[in-house]
Write a structure and sequence with these properties.
Shape: globular
Distance between the termini: 17 Å
CATH class: Mainly Beta
Number of helices: 0
Radius of gyration: 15 Å
Number of strands: 9
Order of helices and strands: EEEEEEEEE
Strand content: 35-45%
Structural class: mainly beta
Helix content: under 10%
CATH topology: Jelly Rolls
CATH architecture: Sandwich
Number of domains: 1
Largest sheet: 5 strands, antiparallel
Length: 149
Amino acid sequence: MPLTDRLSTFGLGVSAVVNSGATAKLGSEIDLQTVTRDIGNGWPFYALIQIKSVLVGSGASFELRLVSDSTTNLASSPTRHWTSGTIAVSSTTDNVVGRRWFVEFPMDNYERYLGLTITGSGANITAGTIDAFVTPHKFRWAPFVEAVS
């Protein structure tokens, strides 16, 4: 995994458990300090979102969203900057370990706090984890097995 720090990480191995019809924040938010339009300061900048362990829930679907908001809970009136679209938990292409999305931050109006949310539908999601962080590097990144002894 590329070098990350707590200021550029939404979370590593964060729980993606969510009830049907509910939206939950995944991990922590990143404080942009000010409202901005160019997160990369003239350079491309990406969010990397990856399924770390398969999400579980019979008949469930989920949608991942990159949002910004004026509050840390990302729930007052979040501005949506990206969405994964609805993904069925039964999907063998999108709900698999290692499935990742590189999201280039669009030139947009961002609120102070940036974060990732998950919305469940159809049934509760009872297990699963996600890694998510920001990075200036999109290419050549590859996951490696953790805790190899």
